[in-house]
Design goal:
This protein has five helices and five strands; from the N terminus they run βαααβββαβα. By secondary structure, it is of the alpha+beta class. The mean pLDDT is 88. Pfam families: Acetyltransf_1.
């Protein structure tokens, strides 16, 4: 029998800007990139609009007000058929809460959202050497070996 969860999973809405900010702080901590995730955060109206967008999904795992895990995904309407794909962009769990089913619960919530919006597939990138992520995603889906390239926009970019 599975252990009872001591956290709740919540799909964020436009009313959850504060939770989204706590999730951004968690991403900065877990990914060791606080500058990207916390130094130039958008204002509240931007985050509220993003959370209300049909092309963005944010899901938080919480213990009371503390965000212990988070997931951000994008919905991609397809052109070759009338269907959607979901790209799981970021997933993080606080170090003290790993190996307790938090990441799996976040992905299961995303699977339900994907089903409800009529998505065809969820896909995610895992970097070589990130063995815990590769093991997690391998348990939940089919592996494809692909190459990823970052192409800067004309005139600059990152």
């Amino acid at each position: 029998m599975p252990e009872p969860r001591d956290f709740e999973v919540q799909v964020l809405t436009r009313h959850d800007v504060g939770t989204m900010r706590r999730m951004l702080a968690l991403f900065g901590e877990v990914f060791e990139d606080r500058r990207t995730y916390t130094s130039a955060q958008p204002d509240d109206p931007y985050l509220a609009a993003l959370l209300a967008s049909p092309t963005f999904i944010a899901i938080a795992a919480r213990q009371q007000d503390a965000v212990i895990g988070g997931l951000a995904a994008y919905v991609l309407p397809k052109f070759e058929q009338a269907r959607k794909e979901v790209y799981l962009y970021d997933l993080a769990v606080a170090a003290a809460h790993r190996r307790r089913g938090v990441a799996t619960a976040l992905i299961e919530a995303l699977r339900r959202v994907a089903r409800d919006i009529g998505a065809w597939v969820i896909y995610v990138q895992a970097d070589r050497g990130d063995d815990p992520a590769i093991a997690l995603y391998g348990r939940l889906g089919m592996r494809e070996d692909v190459l990823h390239f970052d192409i800067a926009p004309a005139g600059g970019g990152h």
